[in-house]
Amino acid sequence: MEEIMSLTGKQKRFLRTQAHSMKPLFQIGKVGLNTVWIKEVKNALNKRELIKINLLQNAPSDTSEVREYLETKTDFQVVQEIGHILVLYRQADSEKNRDISIKLKEL
């Protein structure tokens, strides 16, 4: 797993601004988190770098448990947690998909 760069407050604000108008791309329901779900999220982050996920009412974990799991077991960074929504960031593996991370480095 690649070392995660820690984000500054300014960078997190930028990412939250970028994510504001996004719709959640993934949901966590009664099945909860599993390796297939994490793989799909990683693929999406490789293309977009920034996504929102939504925890449904029937999810077995609450938002803070999911946040803690994702931050410790994956290389995703949780940029924001509002209600049942989490905003995730991860630098894309491919340089052609690194629009957001290039802007982040300039901050």
UniProtKB/TrEMBL annotation:
CRM domain segment(s): 5-101
Pfam families tied to this protein: CRS1_YhbY (PF01985)
Q: Which UniProt keywords apply?
A: RNA-binding
Q: Annotated Gene Ontology MF terms?
A: RNA binding
* Record protein name field: CRM domain-containing protein
Taxonomic lineage per UniProt?
A: Bacteria, Bacillati, Bacillota, Bacilli, Lactobacillales
